[in-house]
Amino acid sequence: MCSSVIQVDVIVPTHTKYLDLIGSIGERIVKELDGFTGDREALAYQLNLVLTEATANAIKHANDTHRKDTVRISIHLHHDILNIKVYDHGQGFDLDKVPTPDFDHPTESGMGLFFIRSMMDSVTYTRQTDCNVLEIIKYLK
Amino acid sequence: MNFNLEKIKNFSVLTIQDERIDAHNSAELKEYLLDMIESGESHIIVQLKQVRFIDSSGLGALLFGHKHMTAKAGQFALSNIQAQVLSMFELTRLTRVFEIYSDINEVLTN
Fold this sequence. Notes:
Order of helices and strands of chain B: EEEHEEHEHEH
Helix content of chain A: 25-40%
Strand content of chain B: 25-35%
CATH class of chain B: Alpha Beta
Distance between the termini of chain B: 30 Å
Number of domains of chain A: 1
CATH topology of chain B: Transcription Regulator spoIIAA
Largest sheet of chain B: 5 strands, mixed
CATH topology of chain A: Heat Shock Protein 90
Helix content of chain B: 40-55%
CATH superfamily of chain B: STAS domain
Number of strands of chain B: 7
Distance between the termini of chain A: 7 Å
Order of helices and strands of chain A: EHHEEHEE
Strand order of the largest sheet of chain B: 1-2-4-6-7
CATH architecture of chain B: 2-Layer Sandwich
Radius of gyration of chain B: 13 Å
Structural class of chain A: alpha+beta
Oligomer: heterodimer
Radius of gyration of chain A: 15 Å
Number of domains of chain B: 1
CATH superfamily of chain A: Histidine kinase-like ATPase, C-terminal domain
Strand order of the largest sheet of chain A: 1-2-3-5-4
Number of helices of chain A: 3
């Protein structure tokens, strides 16, 4: 049982050089989980990866025309539920139309969302008034 | 991205000297591999012992190198992959695609 309550909000420019920073926050949060009895090393890697993939995806879909766009990442942990939200200002995409990779004929792209879906318990992508939100939930029990 | 390229026997051994391969540096890795292949290297080993994190774009860059090398009937192998990184290859079943060795000497002595 994790009794920790953690809320982290980060806003970074839409530049891939910040992926390391964002991923590292995920790893660091795992160190703060009180009473987590699972594989911490694996969870740390998963959160690093999921945050990296989700942020890279937001950067890829960002509105790059004015180069002042930002990505906001919100991480909330409460009652063993880890909730990650990544906000982008791009045109968005239809999550349901993103196919599962063809493992018999692997291609160089298309594995990012597969990783997120495989490692987390719930993934949704919704359009809001002025942004899109990729919401990822992981139950830590 | 920091690389070290050595010629050992008839192999070109490319050691990635960064701890992380992600969307920030994977394009550079692709370019480097393409340059190696285009310049005539036919036996490439990518040594990943220092890499503790790889994302989908990093796997994509290595897959790109593998595809280009095999199209030229060359050899493209990976070695010294850390456990968590190897689990990414397993999850995507890329262990069936790549020649993977636990130690570089396994390749060199084969």
